[in-house]
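As a warm-up, study this chain.
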Amino acid sequence: MSEFIRSRLLDNNAALVQMLGLCPLLAVSNTAINAMGMGLATISVVVITNVLVSLIRPITRKEIRIPLFVLLIASVVTTLEMTMNAYFHELYLTLGIFIPLIVTNCLIMARAEAFASKNNWWISAKDGCFVGLGFALVMMAIGIMRELLGQGTLFSQAHLLFGEWGHHLELTVIPDYAGFLVAVLPPGAFFALALLVAAKNKRDLHLANEQKPQQQHENTRAPNT
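Now compare it with the structure written out below.
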């Protein structure tokens, strides 16, 4: 995995490290399908917005760049909202107000301002794809954890995203499961996110401890070279 991809998926993950976009991350991750739907929507908006911002950067005045970026994001989100309403109506109703609220997602504005406004459209598209993917994977992980603990199922109501074929994806992992109410309530989202952040921090600490002996060995050899 290249440094470019690893940085966006793991090392500087928008959800686990930068803590951006927590509103949709926590609010609509009660099931895996809801999380997947919002994750795909976020990826689409980030990629399209990054490309548009990159394309207009030569003619954008610095004084108006932020209002212009907001206008672009709002236009893309509105188009996405209308598309979901037309082709994924039930999922659109389930996600509700959180689709138009993508406009206020700090993740999208941050990538537009910090990266897309300074780079060409192709590298900006790649940045948006992997930043959005990192965000979506965290959302999916939270959705799977909450659905499994809260309902004992996986990919319930998959037909909302995949049509009739989605019924074949629905799994009952724990039969006759009474459910764990906290998992499907808002506190469950915070607990799931906390576990993922803790797991990432433990991974980072483990990697740092592994690198220390190697660095010390290189430092002791340096005077002899």
